Amino acid sequence: MHPDQWNRQVEACLAQVKLQHRPAFEELYRLTNGRLYALTLKIIPDRELAADALQESYAKIWRNADSYRSDLGGAWAWICQLTRNTAIDWIRRSERRPESSDDPLIGQLIGDDSGLWQQHHDLSRCLRKIREEPRTAIVSAYLYGLTHAELSERLQTPLGTLKSWIRRGLKELHQCLET
To answer: Exposed end of the chain (fewer CB within 10 Å): N or C?
Structure first.
């Protein structure tokens, strides 16, 4: 496809996405996901984290499409900037994330041997090895019995990202407990 034609398609899709037209959003995704994933990978070299950041970017595109103004630049430039900013935000969050959650129950759970699961030292040790986001999601689901949708809302994270965190975190936890 000729670049001008591709740009026109992206522009047309984004115009429809502004109106919350799902088929146009699906087409926009089909047209742009490979390029945006490559852009995200340049900023976040971890493939899984880059995929999570890209998923968040698409959620932002859907929610913020009405703020796009064609008189200020092309649709592709706007989408790239939004995606770039999202990836940079992911890097910044990971650089400043604390060792444990603000939730005191989660802190006790992953804390030292005087925590809630004192008899399960291996579990606490393995939980401490998992990144904060998946750890918080897994422990919150266990402690509070929250559904994925409730956790997504509570943690202000797209549902697909949350599910990825939980899946990856449980895999890491399982591997750690087996060693």
So the answer is: C
